[in-house]
Prior knowledge:
alpha+beta
Amino acid sequence: MTTKRIIINIGASLLxxxxxxxxxxxxxxxxxxxxxxxxxxxxxxxxxxxxxxxTQPIIIQTxxxxxxxxxxxxxxxxxxxxxxxxPNFLLGxxxxxxxxxxxxxxxxxxxxxxxxxxxxxxxxxxLQIELGQQASAKKELELSTMQPTELSKSLVLREPQLxxxxxxxxxxxAAYEIAQNNLNETTVKAPYDGxxxxxxxxxxxxxxxxxxxxxVVATNTFWIKANIPLSYLKFLNTMDEQDLxxxxxxxxxxxxxxxxxxxxxxxxxxxxxxxxxxxLLIAIKDPLNLHHxxxxxxxxxxxxxxxxxxxxxxxxxxxxxxxxxxxANSTVWVMTDKNELSIKPVHVLYKNNQSILIDEGxxxxxxxxxxxxxxxxxxxxxxxxxxxxxSKKAD
Length: 395
């Protein structure tokens, strides 16, 4: 009995062990498997952009100072006391062409004109008398039997006296003209539409010949000289003034357009003394906004220093990008299909502080690296930031 029980216990134990083994095997074969991790590409993390070629105009950026297109010092031509002044005869006063600025007392000049007129009338009367006397002398000579020489005949016919009378008339006509001129000069007028920038006389002032009365600056147009490097002349048609005048010009103050009418007048024939650059003369119409343009932001004043943007020739299939992406030795960093850095040499057509235009060395498919690399090496491994972030999310 005892032996039989032992055999039964051993059999039960073996059965239990067999069932446990089968269950453990089943669990091992059916356990969930962890997904395989996608291997993250190693390399310097960078950002890139794609730039499509386009048609771009060359925008030449420079600065210039505003100066007068015409400035005239008004001087007295005659002496006298100022008895009237224009209400706008003051600093900053706006005057129109022909406006009377000041009136000098004309009393003495009226009298001088009357004297000259009287002398001229007297000389003309003397000429008429002399013509009458010459006619009488000629008739007397015809009735006489005298045969005078040429000299005697001239004296008999009073020809010298006639010439003297004519000369006297010319002399008094000149004196009359001078007197008339002096009378006119007592009225001092504005030579053109302008603004008074200096004033040297007041009501009641006594002025003499050549005394300075005021200085007037033309208001219809101001000028600005824009200096540009000689290498930029190729972007302009500098041989044709008509073409130059059609180039769009934008004037800016603190990067804000002033919305004024400006055009290039000509390329000046000499370089700037200091910068040794070419000079473009630009005319600004109605700079003080006297015609009250609603688009104009503010008036332009003499001495203003403004930014000037000149739109030059247009070029096709040009890559425009920020100037910060141009690397040393006129190169651009590009990411290749193998996730490697390629240092590409390019030809820069034009460059300013904000942007560059490249016409050779790039293709539309190039991924241009915008991240600054402290130690760039041709062929070094790089990883786009967007790809790196996707890999991290998958992890």
